[in-house]
Description:
This protein has about 850 residues and is of the alpha+beta class. About 15% of the residues lie in helices and about 40% in strands. Pfam families: Omp85, POTRA.
Amino acid sequence: MNVGIGVRGGLVAALMMFVMPVASTLAIMLVSWPAVAQSVASIEVDGNRRVEIETIRSYFKPGPGGRLDQAQIDDGLKALIETGLFQDVKISQTRGGILVTVVENPVIGRVAFEGNKKVKDEQLSAEVQSKPRGTLSRPMVQSDAQRIADIYRHAGRYDVSVNPQIIEQPNNRVDLVFEITEGQKTGVRSVEFVGNSAYSSYRLKDIIKTHESNLLSFLGGGDVYDPDRVEADRDLIRRFYLKHGFADVQVVAALTEYDPQQKGFLVTFKIEEGQQYRVAAVNLESSIPSFDANTLRSFSRVSVGSTYNAEALEKSVEEMQIEASRRGYAFAVVRPRGDRNFENHTVTITYAIDEGPRTYIERINVRGNTRTREYVIRREFDISEGDAYNRALVDRAERRLKNLDYFKSVKIATEPGSSSDRVILNVELEEKSTGDFSVSGGYSTTDGALAEVSVSERNFLGRGLFAKASVTYGQYARGASLSFVEPYLLDYRVALGLDVTYREQLANDYISYGTTTLGFSPRLGFALREDLSLQLRYSLYQQSITLPTTLGNCNNLAGPAFLPTPTYINSVLGGVDPTGNAQAGLLPGCLSDGESSLPVREELANGPTWTSSLGYSLDYNTLDNTKNPTDGLLVDFKQDFAGVGGDVSYLKSAIDAKYYAPLVADIVGLVHVQSGILNSIGNTQLRMLDQFQMGPNLVRGFASNGIGPRDLTFFPYTGTGDALGGTKYWGASAELQMPFWFLPKEVGLKGAVYADAGSLWDYQGPTTWAATGEVNGLVNGSPCKCGMVYDDTNVIRTSVGVGLIWQSPFGPLRFDYAVPITKGKYDIVQQFKFGGGTSF
């Protein structure tokens, strides 16, 4: 990095910055002889143009009797120099007194920036201290140049060069121009860990934000060297070890070294892990006479025998302190204490509940919110002015503000108030962009090619509202949606959402019909705890079926329009027509071009169907990372009751649970179980479209809608063999996810091996259509009006397979190849499956 000062416009200006220190020294020497004491009134001033004479005189402070001695004159000289208003100051004695000769610094006409492409002028102007119409100060110019260089340094450009140029103008004015050579970004070439044995370097690279440079680094920013980010990574590593029981861990240093050959930084973290501790006992003590500490035991997230977890301990302290405040002990303070047994590697946790200082919040100052309304920030606090000061509630508010994702940085600091029992909270914020425009595309073996354009805003109008509009167009799926969320309904911490959707699913290789759905769904969301949430919803939507004419042209198969093909007669009817007469070589009938399943044609004849339902979801989430989890549990239980008006009635229940656990050598184990049941209400018959449809989402290795009950009427000769769905299903999967250790971590590739099992059965939809009297079954080789023929065997489907998971910059991608081991007689196999998308 280079920072220098150049001058255009004459040698005089170029020499001034070198002459000034010498001139000041000489000036001090000139007044070093014995001087007769003078008064301030006897000071004469020469050379001033803008600065008033009385202002210059004011820097000389007389002693007793209003006289100036030698020391006071020296102090006045130094004070004038330190103002930065003058290029030179000289003091000399005359017969009448003291003469102060000054050369004023020029006035800045304009401040300009040249060569900056990556940082805008507005951002640089806000950072520099030198301003138009201000006085030129060369030390300040040097400081501004350094400040500009720091901005680029934080953006990863360490070879930046900033060269200030001073251009003289008439009337003692100058233009200040900062010439900037931005240089290239300085990347991180390697990230190493020293002293880690419990966790591999591969695993620790998941924890930190600094990443090594690779071919796809231009899509992110973690590979650019930033000392602040490296320092933050030290804390992330420390907190990770503390969460997993290493109470003595120390991240001793984060060493950075620039390698000129690789043109990048080498980052090394030195770690002293210590031993892993388990919890031997959990005790509670209270020094408040009227408070029973044991009543807070249920709020402890640390249990005996478990691995020591500093994060769980922090949350326990926070919840205990908040609960004590709710019970009327506003000043109660919960302090955790850990007594370690170094031989047994155990720790005894003691929660000490004491009476804290009686301190109140005098004022809450919010600063830096240029766009976000202040009430949006204040509503994240559970305390306000005048309340008792509670550090746990302040920490919770800071965490909530960070989770909003509206701000680059959030910091809440305290300062003394107007009295000893008052504090002031200062909320320092830095806004960031909250709008997103994305063009997404993807392809899957089920849905084909798909593209989506969406516009979203997380902080709509600065009021904390969420709004999103998207349009989807694909090979087999098209639609549009609008979403809106008010996170604080009527100033309560209840989220109100509204979704309006239109979706069109086209016929494809797996279904013979298309569906069109139009509806809306308001919902209410409640955060019961940080890991537990509840959502209530109402859904109203219209659904209709579209079907090619050729698949629905035999609505009355008992009539003369039914002219079976010779193939159908010979292979299915045993060489006789529906009347029992031997036939051969008849012209193709209405079945020759295919026929869709009876439930599909019934939906087509009934027309659009309205569904009105009430439902709820209960979610429990302890995952360590929602995008790439390695530890934790995610459970989703939901129920929907249809029949609040509308044309259908049913009760649908489903549960989905995933448990992740780190094993050995960076291998992550995943157990996934799911189940569902659909019950009819009253005497209403269930529709085919309301039943569960399963495929690779239950057991991999099968096609979409590839397992479960299937229509066999006229199949496989002229029928489509549509999947009918079922009212019951279960599934279980065990998976091992492992990194490719020979590839760089930043590539984001993982492999997976898995085994799946599951079943779908108990179709309860329509099987006869009395109005048509159609012949759609066989008895002893003869046609009959016996209803739809279908297979509903409860077979356990199993498969094993391998997968490739890529957390790519283009979005998550997954490739699976699975081989079914057991399957139903009419199941459809699809061994390879691919899905993924991108945003750009």
